[in-house]
Design goal:
Elements: E1 4-8, E2 11-15, H1 17-28, E3 33-35, H2 36-44, H3 50-64, E4 72-77, E5 81-86
Antiparallel strand pairs: 1-2, 3-5, 4-5
Length: about 90
């Protein structure tokens, strides 16, 4: 099957290419806000609609289980973009 793999301990997640790239950027900016503009320029050469970005981020959150009970919080930063935090 296609896609790229992300590992979290013993868990493996296979993501489609764009979702993998979104996840990679979020983790590279862990604890810091990441703008929609940066995501758009980096992954879609500035051609993506805001909804496309939101959809991909939502899919990454769901597929990777980025929830507080799993040690992460992925939240929207109003009027800017997203922020992924590690929660202890």
């Amino acid at each position: 099957a296609g896609g790229q793999i992300i590992r979290n301990g013993a868990e493996e997640f296979r993501l489609p290419h764009k979702e993998f790239e979104v996840a990679r950027l979020l983790f590279r900016h862990l604890g810091r806000p990441l703008s929609r503009e940066h995501l758009n320029q980096s992954l879609w050469s500035g051609q993506a609609q805001s909804r496309t970005i939101d959809t991909h981020v939502s899919r990454v959150r769901t597929r990777l289980g980025l929830t507080i009970d799993k040690g992460f919080q992925l939240q929207a930063v109003y009027g800017f973009g997203y922020r992924l935090d590690r929660v202890t």
